[in-house]
Amino acid sequence: EPENLDERFEELRLAFKATSKLGAERTFPMLRRAGDELILVVLPQPTLDYTQNRTNLYLLIATIFTTTWAGSMWWASYVDSNVLEMSWWWLRIIITPDVFFMGFLTFSLPLMAILGTHEMGHYYYAKKHNLDASLPFFLPMPPMIFPFGTMGAFISIREPIPNRRALLDVGASGPIAGLLVAIPVTLLGFWLTERNAVPVPIDSGDSLYLGSSIFFGALGSLSELFYPSSGDYLSHPVVLAGWTGFFVTALNLMPAGQLDGGHIARALLGPKSNGLSYTVIFLLILMTFYGIPGFGPPYTGWAIYAML
């Protein structure tokens, strides 16, 4: 294997990029190993420009709407709004300005800040490594189907990532950036929960009980040091936004497939990461039917995550 292979290949890759900017056909090089030999392969590069059809912008607007819609439902439940007593309240809530605005302010805005920062972390490092990357594609989802109004977001990188260092930087930067926003958002939510002190209703059978994690629980304990709880209160919608941010981050960090965790595993372990990926998928299928002994019951959602 030649010395400074990564540096020499990077020079070649950038040279291909430079020629495409001068009008040549858009192509990119790849190194493939065949036994003890390295073979240079040149492939055509997709030319679709997402900025021209504004797909990113339309999805962003739609996701702001669906997360605000979801947030307004959380807010209406939190303050026990009169709109909950109306027929078709989940539609009427859209035309209830004060509730809809609070849904944006207390849920959509902090959640979109977490998800947006996560994806821009990926985008920044993709550009830093001279990769052809798109701006984030947000995934809207009506809150009647998924209670948080979005399935997250992703960026599209339209060429192979050249080396493990770039793969690690791009894969790890998103979760780290997202956590830097999710932590203060969650702490703010805990403070608002204690400050407003909305008691849990006696008949709380339809309430949503949030699962916890070591990290989320640690933030709750930290909040208790400064704002000791004096009772059981409903979680403020900002807490839900922070929890959703942690959930999306945890899901993305599973070392499987095209998830961030899968990229990090490939960067650190190389081909050995394939075995880890299959193991994670197998465990998810097992948890679908048997749950996690001592921690949680069977949950069909694990099967969906395995397919992802």
Q: Which secondary structure elements does this structure contain, and how are they paired or packed?
A:
Blueprint: H1 5-21, E1 27-34, E2 37-44, H2 50-53, H3 55-79, H4 89-92, H5 97-128, E3 137-140, E4 150-154, H6 164-196, H7 214-226, H8 237-252, H9 260-269, H10 273-290, H11 301-307
Antiparallel strand pairs: 1-2, 3-4
Helix pairs in contact: 3-5, 5-6, 5-8, 6-7, 6-8, 6-9, 9-10, 10-11
Short note summarizing the structure:
With about 300 residues, this protein is mainly α. It is about 60% helix and about 10% strand.
Question: Could you characterize what this model shows?
Answer:
The protein has 308 residues and is mainly alpha-helical. The chain has three domains: 5-44, no CATH class; 52-253, no CATH class; 268-308, no CATH class. It has eleven helices and four strands; from the N terminus they run αββααααββαααααα. It has helices spanning 5-21, 50-53, 55-79, 89-92, 97-128, 164-196, 214-226, 237-252, 260-269, 273-290, 301-307, and strands at 27-34, 37-44, 137-140, 150-154. The strands form two sheets. A two-stranded antiparallel ribbon has the order 1-2. The protein has a two-stranded antiparallel sheet with strand order 3-4. α3 crosses α5 (97-128), α6 packs across α7 (214-226) and α6 (164-196) runs antiparallel to α8 (237-252). The chain is elongated and about 70 Å long. It starts with a helix and ends with a helix. The model has no long low-confidence stretch (mean pLDDT 84).
